[in-house]
Amino acid sequence: MPTDEQSGDDVASAYDARAAEYIARLGSLEQMAAEDRALITRWRDATRGPMLDVGCGPGHWTALLAEGGREVLGVDVSAEMIAAARSQWEAPEFLQSDAAALPAATAR
Questions:
Q1: Is residue 82 in a domain?
Q2: Does residue 107 lie in a domain region?
Q3: pLDDT per residue as tens, the chain (108 positions)
Q4: Concatenated DSSP letters of the chain
Q5: For the chain, how many structural domains are there in total?
Q6: In a domain, 106, yes or no
Q7: Is residue 108 assigned to a domain?
């Protein structure tokens, strides 16, 4: 049976292998449904404090959340997704990490 670390590595490898395809099909806000963009924008505007986007992929939703100077951290296990996010946006901050290994206190 694979360990959690091996499972995480498998997931990261799978996303890395298909990152270009994912980004081409779903990697920009313009490719997302207008209703989804509106819903996330309303949620962002009604939410206070720092935000964490776990599984941020190429960072388009993270960037939307960060509009207006909001503090947002985008996290993804895929190095390719994080590289794409960092190449597209200077801010917000993006971190390659497994969600289970985030450098933050529990319940933060």
A1: yes
A2: no
A3: 455 555 668 889 999 999 999 999 999 999 999 999 999 999 999 999 999 999 999 999 999 999 999 999 999 999 999 999 999 999 899 999 988 888 666 655
A4: ---HHHHHHHHHHHHHHHHHHHHHHH-SGGGS-HHHHHHHHHHHHH--S-EEEET-TTSHHHHHHHTTT--EEEEES-HHHHHHHHHH-SSSEEEE--GGG-SS-TT-
A5: 1
A6: no
A7: no
